[in-house]
């Protein structure tokens, strides 16, 4: 069970570092994220792609679902870090897709991990992916070994019944 938990933790770390994923709703602070683009066709995915193309690991949509800004890891720490907000605060529909939520007004933004890995973290992400692959292999082997043990036990029980 502890190996399974380790795999879940590793998958979470790899996902947080290398995959596009929703980070959460945040209070928007002036000057923290870099403004990228505004438009009536804005969606979370479009913002993610714009920010990733320009080497930003985070994207944020806000202002009635029309604006996109990009951010770096440092903006979640440091002297004036972004602060999480309740999910209900990011309830405005995206201008380009009313089924998506893109922040709310100018005060809250929906933040996404773009999948871009900053150069200093690239090696760590690759190593995590390698370890993750090995963990999957080991778990599969363990599960096969457990199945074989169960089958051997069943075989012993059958042999015992037949010898009676």
From TrEMBL:
Superkingdom field: Eukaryota
Signal peptide span: 1-19
Localization terms from the record: Membrane
GO cellular component assignments: plasma membrane
Family matches, as PROSITE patterns: WSC
Bilayer topology annotation: Single-pass membrane protein
Coiled coil residues, start to end: 121-164
Alphabetically ordered keywords of this record: Coiled coil, Glycoprotein, Membrane, Signal, Transmembrane, Transmembrane helix
Domain WSC, chain residue ranges per copy: 19-115
UniProt KW Coiled coil keyword: yes
Predominant cellular place of this UniProt entry's protein: membrane
Name of the protein described by the UniProt record: Hypp9125 protein
Source organism of this protein record: Branchiostoma lanceolatum (Common lancelet)
């Amino acid at each position: 069970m502890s190996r399974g938990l380790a795999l879940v933790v590793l998958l979470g770390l790899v996902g947080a570092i290398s995959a596009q994923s929703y980070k959460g709703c945040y209070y928007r602070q002036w000057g923290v994220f870099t403004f990228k683009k505004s438009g009536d066709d804005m969606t979370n995915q479009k913002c993610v792609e714009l920010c990733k193309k320009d080497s930003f690991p985070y994207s944020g949509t806000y202002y009635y679902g029309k604006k996109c800004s990009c951010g770096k890891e440092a903006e979640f720490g440091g002297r004036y870090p972004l602060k999480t907000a309740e999910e209900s605060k990011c309830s405005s529909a995206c201008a380009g897709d009313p089924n998506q939520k893109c922040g709310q007004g100018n005060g809250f933004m929906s933040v996404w991990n773009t999948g871009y890995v900053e150069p200093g973290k690239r090696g760590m992400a690759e190593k995590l992916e390698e370890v993750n692959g090995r963990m999957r292999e080991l778990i599969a082997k363990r599960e096969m070994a457990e199945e074989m043990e169960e089958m051997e036990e069943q075989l012993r029980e059958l042999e015992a019944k037949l010898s009676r």
